[in-house]
Design a protein that fits this description.
Layout (H helix, E strand, L loop, with lengths): L1 E2 L9 H8 L6 E5 L7 H8 L4 E6 L2 H13 L5 E5 L15 E7 L8 H11 E12 L16 H9 L4 E8 L4 E8 L2
Length: 185
């Protein structure tokens, strides 16, 4: 298991996105993007020839991202309002993306299998799915323990999926786990 944490207790988007291989020109989605903590950094990395879809059910979060994108002159961010728990609801073309990010989102979902299927359908063959969430142990930050989804639960949900293979399990920060999958067909 790789440790990409660098002494900071919380997540470092730049280090994590470089670790997983995000590059200029790539097309990605940040599902459950919140206020854009990873979205904005990803947009800077992929550059003007790349595209970042910021997807959330909270319109206020998407408005915040639009403002920040304008403020930083990031013209490659497209906000998408969607309920990620409904298969087919998210208006991103099927098989388009190089990466899908699911960061701090699954613990909030009541329909994790649907959420993950929605994420997978956007990936092209060889595309990668990054999942980062809170460790399921008694740590001082994050959501209540009973709301967290453990790494084994995510692996079990995805092990039965013949579209993905696990590339890496890593430690993105002191309070988190990370899983990187690749779409194989």
């Amino acid at each position: 298991m790789t440790n990409v944490a660098t002494g900071t207790k919380l997540l470092n988007p730049l280090e994590i996105l470089k670790h997983i291989g995000l590059e200029k020109g790539m097309k990605i989605a940040d599902l459950g993007c919140g206020n854009g903590y990873f979205t904005l950094t990803a947009a800077q990395i992929v550059g003007g020839h790349g595209q970042v879809y910021a997807v959330d059910i909270m319109k206020s979060c998407l408005e915040t991202i639009k403002r920040e994108a304008q403020r930083h002159n990031l013209l490659n961010i497209k906000t998408v309002w969607s309920n990620l728990e409904i298969l087919g609801a998210t208006k991103i073309p099927v098989g388009l993306l190089d990466f899908v990010l699911v960061i701090h989102a699954l613990y909030q979902s009541q329909h994790r299998q649907n959420f993950l299927q929605e994420a997978i359908r956007f990936l092209k063959p060889g595309g990668k799915l990054l999942i980062i969430d809170w460790k399921k142990n008694n740590i001082p930050l994050g959501p209540p323990l009973n709301q967290r989804v453990g790494v084994e639960e995510i692996k079990n949900l995805l092990n039965n999926n013949n579209q993905l293979k696990l590339l890496e399990e890593f430690v993105p920060g002191e309070y988190h786990y990370g899983l990187l999958y690749e779409k194989i067909n």
